Each structure stands twice: as structure tokens, then as C-alpha cells.
Amino acid sequence: MQDIIDSSVVENENAARLTGLNRDYAALGDKLGRRGVSIDAIRDKVAAFGIAIPSWGVGTGGTRFARFPGPGEPRDIFDKIEDCAVIDQLTCATPRISLHIPWDKADPQALKEAASRFGLGFDAINSNTFQDQPGQRRSYKFGSLSHTDAATRQQAVEHNLECIEIGKAIGSKALTVWIGDGSNFPGQSDFARAFDRYLGSMKAVYAALPEDWRVFTEHKMYEPAFYSTVVQDWGTNYLIAKELGPKAYCLVDLGHHAPNVNIEMIVSRLIQFGKLGGFHFNDSKYGDDDLDAGSIDPYRLFLVFNELVEAERREAPGFQPAHMLDQSHNVTDPIESLMVSAGEVRRAYAQALLVDRQALAEAQEANDALMASEALKAAFRTDVEPILASARLKAGGAVDPVAAYRASGYRRKVAEKRPATEGSGGGIV
Ligand code: LRH
Ligand code: MN
Ligand code: MN
Known about the structure:
Helix content is 47%, strand content 9%. It is an alpha/beta fold.
């Protein structure tokens, strides 16, 4: 397996931090031991927890108003795979990439070879019928899988079938479908008929899924349609998964809800009824901001993981969620953001593993609201960084991934061979 960052850089950076880490790990281990928790067992669970990197996340995303690209932007999917390899080399937390078609379209064999050189695999494959592509016969301006025109729907179905074929060739085991279909004016669309058309199209996609595949449908309350969206919330998403059958699951993108919506409760409901497919992790203050995971409301991320850990503990039927990031980086180096975000997701997982489940259950039974809340807060307040760092170190990664990345000069080096790209306005202002 090939390393992109010189191993001596990582070793030197780690050596400078080793004594401190060992002391912090021992102190935390002592503290957890008094609670009957084995720090090594938590560390091993964290080390086994992988998060998929979205291929589109390693380029500067920008907003719909402008994009300010940084130096050394990836030119194509093969550059993106290399950037993903750097993230995984240093974090040892991101073994798979989630591709978006047609953005990442290339010879599947070449994709597979490029990824496996770095020990990477592919997670869910994403279809795109929310944009028109050059030379496309029919436009998605007024919808895709739910379009009023049967030929446009058929084109969108065929695109999803092609994604399944590509996914099969590269070793994906799931298709994620998000559509921008909806309306901008009251009356523009008949809600029921549009949903019927969508279900009809998705049934055709579902029928083409291989035996061991799953399909994830992703809900989103608004944007690009600003009055109504065909797959607008978890309720509609659940109906879809139920209508389609056992291979259909709901995908929860944290940014796709109204502000203050209780997402952890949505997660609980989907788990309870065996339909949680996975996540697009990110954070937001206002809407689908696509900010870095854990950067605004880490407690919410922890509360989501509290549900996941509880489901894992009770071995909830059908519980096998896919964990993917879906972020847009506007002002940071995307590699740094993704490394930190993968760490934040693991942090929430580690903290949730520390919840005293018996104390929580007893407080719930006794209607002791304060102690129930404290059981969660005690775990959330624990600084689990030594656990995360130790998991990385043991797997051959960096104690401090951002420091090692900066010391490596990777961005400067790729900037020499990757030409600068132009920033662009969204053109919607
Ligand atoms: C839509 C979305 C969806 C797309 C991605 C690029 O807002 O979250 O997952 O595929 O962004
Ligand atoms: Mn998403
Ligand atoms: Mn989104």
C-alpha cells in the first residue's frame, strides 16, 4: 500500500507528542477505570469506526454566490482519490470514498485501481439528476424522477441504473438518491401526483438493485425548490422506504432540516422501525450550510450518536448505518476540514460510548430528569482526545493530523503540478 505523505514526517511529528499522549491516555484510562470502563476497549471500537469521504468535499465548494478556490485544487477524480488517501493516511478513519456521478465518471477499473493503491474502497454511490449535463436530451429544470414528462423520468431512471452499474464495477454496495424536484410556487405542482410519479420511478431503480445492495433516499426540506420539495422530510422518506421494500432505507443529512428540529429523535424513530440507512454528517447554523461536522453544535452530534450507540447495544434489527461526510468547504483547506470532521464524528461516537447506560435507564424509569441529563452531560464533558489520538497512532496515523499535514507541505507540492482554478460567481445573485 502506497503512502503519499512521507512516513518520516509522521514519525517525527508523532515522536514530539508521544510522551504527552501517553500521560494523557493513562490519566483518562485511570479515570474511566474507576467507572468500570476499559479505555482500551473504547479505543478499539473507535479505531474500527470508519467514515466515508465525499469525493466532492476535497475541492473548495463555495456558495451559490462565489467560489474562492485554494491552491492545488484537485483536477479530476484521480487527484481527489489522492487527497482522500492523505486524509486516510493521517487519520486512519476514512477508508472509503463516496462518489458522485457524473462528476466522478471515469473508467471503473481505473477508479478501482487508483483507490486500491492507497488501500481505499468505495462507499455509497450518488446519482445526480439535480443538474443538467452537457448534451443531455431532456432538462431537469422542472424535475427528474418526478417530472410530469415520462421521457424525462425515464432518463433520470436510466442515470440511476448507470450509477448502479458503475457502483457494481467499483465495489459499492449502495446507491444514494437525492433529487432537487419540487416547486417554487403554490399550485405549481400537484403534491400527490408528483409523489406518485417519484415512487413509480424509484420502483424501477429499486428493481435493478443487486441482491446485496441497499438504496438510500435522502430527504431535504428545501433548496433548490423553495416552496415544496417532493422528498421533504423523514416522514415522506420513511413512506418511500416502506413502499419500495426491504433494500430501501432513509438517509439523514444533518443539514436538511429546519433549524432546531430534533434530529436525534428522527434517528431514533428510523432505527426503531428498521429504516435508518445512513448519514451525511455536517453542521449548520441556519439551513443546509454544509459546515464542518461538530463545528456549530457538537452536543447535537453527540445526541445523535447516543441513539446510535444505544441501537448498537440492543442490536436493533436492520441497524447497519453508513457514515459519510457531506460538507462544503469555503474558507479552509478541504483536506484539513475533512480530517478534523472525521475526528469530530469519532469524538461524538467515543463520548456516546461513555454514557452510563444503566444510570440513564434508571433515571428515565424514575422520571429523574436532572440525573438523566447529567448522565449524558458527564459523557459529553469527557475529553476523549487521548482515545482518538491513540486510535490513530496505533493504526499508523498521526497523533495530530493537521500538524502532520502542515509539516508535510502536501498542499504546496500539489499546487506545483495542479494548475490554479478560477473562482466563479454562482450567477444567481
Ligand atoms: C444536497 C446534498 C446531496 C447531494 C450533495 C452534493 O444538498 O446534500 O447529498 O448529493 O448535497
Ligand atoms: Mn447530502
Ligand atoms: Mn445538502
